[in-house]
From TrEMBL:
Gene Ontology molecular function: any one: oxidoreductase activity
Higher taxonomy: Eukaryota, Fungi, Dikarya, Ascomycota, Pezizomycotina
Superkingdom classification of source: Eukaryota
Entry-linked Gene3D superfamilies: Leucine-rich Repeat Variant
Protein name: HEAT repeat domain-containing protein
One Pfam match: HEAT_2
SUPFAM superfamilies per record: ARM repeat
Length: 245
């Protein structure tokens, strides 16, 4: 490992890139190796910076200083580097409020792959602030459907969402992209309970028009079979949405 780190100073950028990439295959890196990779964030070649970022992204736990260095890469002129930095941060099980706020700022990035990676990174957090949830809902309007899908999917770990957020998810059931629709259904299915307002919205949005679509039907409010969407029913909704063309 020490020998590989020594190649980080090689005058040939392809050697530096290769060394970082090789180190990235290790499941556990020493603090010294991580620090050396962070130094490569300053490399003049963007593909070397990207390789170093991806290598660090293989680590499940990173020190605060490294996290701060990754956040700094959100300002990198190369969109692939910004995307890799967001992806690396997303591998961490717990993020600070400051880091999550920095990820939300990436929602404004001109590159859709960066916006998508930022949303995915936030989606791995079990608890998101109201402001972060609201920012994710705004991404439902993104021009790129993969960003919309990622934003909806990011809400899937939240056990309690506001009615406004749930209504926005229900609206996604009308989306032309099946990945977006299924992500919205999954997020709704993960909720422990739904208000009458949302059950009503679901009944309107997926009321069957034909016998073939009857699997999508959710009994209306007041039905003896529903006053709460169970986990099982949430799964049925998701499965049904998967079959919508």
């Amino acid at each position: 490992m020490v020998a590989l780190v020594g190649f980080f100073k090689d005058e040939d950028s392809s050697v530096r890139w290769s060394a970082a990439r090789t180190i990235g295959n290790q499941s556990t890196l020493s603090d010294a190796t991580i620090a050396a990779l962070v130094e490569l964030f300053k490399d003049e070649k963007s593909y070397v910076r990207r390789s170093a970022t991806r290598a660090i992204g293989s680590q499940s736990t990173l020190p605060d200083a490294t996290m701060a260095a990754l956040v700094e890469l959100f300002k990198d002129k190369d969109s692939d580097v910004r995307e890799s930095a967001a992806r690396a941060i997303g591998m961490q099980s717990t993020l600070s409020d400051a880091t999550m706020a920095a990820l939300v700022e990436l929602f404004k990035d001109k590159d859709s792959s960066v916006r998508r990676s930022a949303a995915i990174a936030l989606g791995k957090q079990s608890t998101l602030s109201d402001a972060t949830v609201a920012a994710l809902v705004e991404l439902f309007k993104d021009e790129d459907s993969s960003v919309q899908w990622s934003a909806a999917n990011a809400l899937g770990k939240q056990s309690t969402l506001s009615d406004a957020t749930m209504v926005a998810l229900v609206e996604l059931f009308k989306h032309e992209d099946s990945n977006v629709r299924s992500s919205a259904a999954r997020a709704i299915g993960n909720e422990s309970a739904l208000s009458d307002k949302i059950l009503d919205a679901l009944g309107i949005s997926i009321q069957p028009e034909t016998h073939a679509q009857s699997a999508l039907y959710i009994p209306p409010i007041g039905s003896s079979s529903h006053n709460m969407l169970s986990e099982e029913k949430g799964g049925e909704v998701f499965a049904a949405m998967q079959n919508v063309a």
